[in-house]
Write a structure and sequence with these properties.
Layout lengths: L2 H30 L5 H18 L5 H23 L9 H12 L1 H19 L5 H18 L8 H28 L4 H10 L1 H33 L3 H5 L1
Length: 240
């Protein structure tokens, strides 16, 4: 199989797993199990989120190093969420997830976002909202990786815009779960009310993303790019 065909196959597998299988798993959790099996659903999503990465996985030392880097970024994100727990909506999770997507690629960004949700909720409290958080944060990391796929030093203004958009996106997507949890079905009128009531959260979160990106993006990206160059890792993930 030629390299071009392999790349196409990897892209198809990634799209199917992230945007078909994971949403389908969440749907089964909400409607089939009525959110009673959210722990099982979370585990399934965690496993599925790793599939696109393993499809591109490099065997040997480089693959192990890539796993370590992803784990470290997820750990930073989890710790950041816990440290800023006393301040509502002011968290570095989305910023670190975006940075991971930019530096390590879309698939790695998705893993960092989804793993942050499930691990940090061991402290915050697991619940039927966890699978939604895993998908939403993962999606934001994946989207950042796609937008900045070829950029080692993204424009700060564009990065800040993506950060603000990530805050808005997280809020409006999580409001879908809020609506479903309240009514057992999606009602547009109730959804719009929930979005309106969460505007203050949305604004604070969007602003916090910009602040954290301004502070963290340069040192994190500089270090991650240096690690990638030194060990020759994440070539397939970020530069294909």
């Amino acid at each position: 199989m030629t390299q071009n065909k392999k790349n196409i196959l990897r892209t198809v597998i990634t799209a199917v797993v992230l945007f078909v299988l994971i949403p389908l798993t969440i749907w089964l959790g909400v409607w089939l199990f009525e959110d009673r099996k959210y722990n099982i659903i979370s585990i399934i999503i965690a496993l599925l989120s790793c599939v696109p990465f393993f499809v591109r996985f490099e065997k040997g030392k480089s693959g192990a190093r890539e796993m370590i880097v992803i784990a470290v970024m997820a750990a930073f994100s989890v710790v950041g969420r816990l440290v800023f727990a006393p301040i509502p909506a002011f968290k570095p999770v989305t910023a670190i997830t975006i940075i991971s997507g930019v530096a390590l690629g879309p698939e790695a960004g998705f893993i960092v976002g989804s793993m942050t949700a499930v691990v940090s909720n061991m402290f915050y409290g697991q619940g039927p909202w966890t699978p939604f958080q895993m998908f939403v944060w993962g999606f934001i990391g994946f989207l950042a990786g796609v937008i900045f796929r070829k950029s080692k030093k993204p424009n700060r203004i564009v990065l800040s815009i993506v950060g603000a958009f990530g805050g808005v996106l997280f809020s409006i997507l999580m409001d879908i779960w809020t609506t479903l949890s309240l009514d057992g079905e999606f009602l547009l009128s109730r959804y719009l009310v929930n979005v309106a009531s969460s505007l203050s959260f949305m604004v604070i979160y969007a602003v916090s993303n910009i602040i954290f990106l301004i502070i963290l993006a340069h040192p994190f990206l500089e270090k991650l790019n240096r690690i990638k160059t030194k060990y020759g890792i994440f070539g397939l993930l970020s530069n294909e």
